[in-house]
Amino acid sequence: MKLKNKTERENFLKNYKSWELFKEIPEIEIKLYRYVFPNGTAIIATEHAIFTYDRFESGRNYYKKITAVKYHLILSETDSYNGTTFFNEYKFYNPTGDCLSAIIRYLTVSRPEV
Q: What is the pLDDT of residue 88?
């Protein structure tokens, strides 16, 4: 896989549904998609339901359920990437997700490895 520019990297992340469906928990409406690079590093896209404001009508707020996604970068033990700002920042799954721009930076800097 060769991602030549930022647009291609963003499109790769947006098309997470083409990756492996790694885990699914239907009871809480969560799906985890995973892409594993040859060096063992993985990007996980966690798809989950959230409620968001829809409208105000007759003195009442209404909300609707939508699907949201968070991305997670999990570096392999052998990955030489050194773009972390905290100790072992990308060695473990972070439930709140990782910064999308940091994942794009990883894809840019580590291009020869991945």
A: 60
Residue 1 lies in a domain: no
Domain count, the chain: 1
For 40, the domain range is: 6-108
Contacts of the segment 44-47: beta carbons below 8 A, 24+ positions apart: 44/71, 44/72, 44/74, 44/93, 45/13, 45/16, 45/19, 45/69, 45/70, 45/71, 45/72, 46/70, 46/71, 46/72, 46/97, 47/16
> Residue range 73-84: average pLDDT?
79
Give 89-106 pLDDT, tens digit per residue.
788 888 888 888 889 988
Q: Is residue 113 part of a domain?
A: no
